Amino acid sequence: MSQQSSPTVFSAGLDIMEMYKPKPDRVKEFWTTLQDVWLALYGSSFPTVAAINGHSPAGGCLLSLCCEYRIMCPNYSIGLNETKLGIVAPKWFMSSMLGAIPYREAELALTSGRMFSTDEALKIGLIDEVASDKADAIAKSEKFLSQFAKIHPIARKLTKLNLRHSALEWMQENKELDLNIFISFVGQPIVQKSLEKYLEGLKAKQAK
Ligand SMILES: CC/C=C\C/C=C\CCCC/C=C/C(=O)SCCNC(=O)CCNC(=O)[C@H](O)C(C)(C)COP(=O)(O)OP(=O)(O)OC[C@H]1O[C@@H](n2cnc3c(N)ncnc32)[C@H](O)[C@@H]1OP(=O)(O)O
Questions:
Q1: Does 206 sit in the ligand 1 pocket, CB within 6 Å?
Q2: Beta 49-52 vs 116-117: how paired, if at all?
Q3: So, what pathway does this thing act in (predicted)?
Q4: What SS3 class is residue 72?
Q5: What integer is the mean pLDDT of 154-160?
Q6: Nearest of 67, 169, 77, 153 to residue 115 by alpha carbon
Q7: Which of 10, 87, 107, 132 could form a disulfide with 54 if both were Cys (CB 3.0 to 4.6 A apart)?
Q8: Known catalytic membership, residue 201
Q9: From the CB of 87, is ligand 1 less than 6 Å away?
Q10: CA nearest 73: which of 136, 16, 11?
Q11: How does strand 49-52 pair with strand 129-130?
């Protein structure tokens, strides 16, 4: 459950203003912080559930994909919509999605930057359950977690971390490479132009 300033947003993803005209003194910290959050959450030895009580685009969707189980409230949207911004979901965003939905669904979703409604997300397996509201999402999360009381904690932890091993190992070994890809990618004029257009679209939507 994220504690957000907007009651209808679980997480709006990365701050686009950090990628639009990025400041050289901030960009490294920005990206390595995200890498570290992913490593900590995706690689957590604890069982994790995302109670998604709001829209969850891109980085927001990624946060939920780090968890083993996703419960979402109705009438929100979720997905890795990066291509809609003219950017590319990094390899580890993609592998997080592939841990939840079949390759074919992921390919269609990622290439089109599709955002799914709660019901659509349930249908493809991007979320595991629908909750009627925030309290129900918390109750369902507790129910999911309580099943592990009967499972040996070391057996559960090693099983989870073995399943996630190759993605985690890739990141641990390639943090610097991944950072350099990010910096050179967002620095391209064509990418900056796309982000500018996307931001204009957000502002125009808000002005309506
Ligand atoms: C080979 C190459 C390999 C690798 C490439 C490397 C790197 C590139 C990949 C980087 C990965 C990126 C991940 C991301 O997370 S990108 C961010 C994606 N997020 C979005 O698209 C969300 C956009 N926002 C919305 O859809 C809506 O705002 C939302 C969240 C549904 C809420 O809607 P609503 O309540 O109606 O609010 P408004 O739309 O009116 O927005 C209010 C206000 O917030 C600003 N805003 C919204 N989201 C963001 C954001 N993510 N960053 C910055 N600002 C945001 C919006 O513009 C409004 O601002 P204002 O100042 O006008 O109040």
A1: yes
A2: unpaired
A3: Lipid metabolism; fatty acid beta-oxidation
A4: strand
A5: 98
A6: 77
A7: 10
A8: no
A9: yes
A10: 136
A11: unpaired
With CA atoms as reference, report the closest residue to 50 among 124, 149, 118, 151. Answer: 118
Amino acid of residue 28: K
Catalytic residue among 54, 65, 81, 113: 81
Q: What ipTM is given for this predicted complex?
A: 0.96
Distance 47 CA to ligand 1 centre (A): 29
Place of tokens 């009381």: 149
Which one from 13, 34, 54, 59 is the annotated catalytic residue?
Answer: 59
- Span 24-78, pLDDT tens digits: 989 999 999 999 999 999 999 999 999 999 999 999 999 999 999 999 999 999 9
Beta strands 77-79 and 116-117, pairing class: antiparallel
